[in-house]
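Milestone M4 deliverable, item 7.
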Amino acid sequence: MVESIKVLTPTRERFFWALDQDTVQTGRYVHQTGGPGKFAVVRLRFQTDFDGPGVVLANEVVEEDFPHDDFELDEIVDAISQGVLVGLSEASPDSEPIQALKITVMDIAVQLVDTLPQHFIEAAQRAVQQAVDEAGLVYIRPS
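Output delivered:
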């Protein structure tokens, strides 16, 4: 069940890059030592969507399943959306965000001591790069 959907970018009117195929990727940002560490894991489904409005982020994780008392699930989803946007620009050959995507947050993992919302920015960026590496890119001309 999809709980929320947010449009991250409008559709571009000119040529743009898109993923060549759908993929599911897990982005991990984990660095744990004896002291405070960093821990964020996000599983994202990337689906090409040429009929949608640019890039859409959907969230399937529900608040009841989110095991953290120090911050809200919405903070994590906002951080994931920031990481996705940065990742889509960085992975694009022309530095314009990759388009025609529906990205769904399927699952997240947190560690009660070492997780902060900003760690999910990096985890999401890593998932985007993995998606581009696996699926490849195609150059699209809008009709």
